[in-house]
Amino acid sequence: MEQILPSEVIERIFVFSQNPELRFISRSFHKISKTTKVRSEFFLFRFGPKNVFDFKEGLPAKFPKLFVNENLSLSLVNLGASIDPNQPKWGDCSTRDP
Prior knowledge:
Elements: H1 7-17, H2 27-33, H3 36-47, H4 59-62, H5 64-67, H6 70-78
Helix pairs in contact: 1-2, 1-3, 3-6
């Protein structure tokens, strides 16, 4: 089947829908959902630039397997995600408050 919508439109639909199950609609959606660009836009839109790297509520907490993807993390930073220096470091399992 020929793709009817341009890739950019499919990307926007996927990001703004905030529904990862949309990738099962067609091969076009599935292919686009796997790109680093769309994944980073999806998570930046979902968590916001201040919370995407939050270890309690952001990408590391909700999707730890994706968080270790260096290209995804760099893409998020390039798109404007902020890194809070007060956040615990990756691998710091202590969640106790001082």
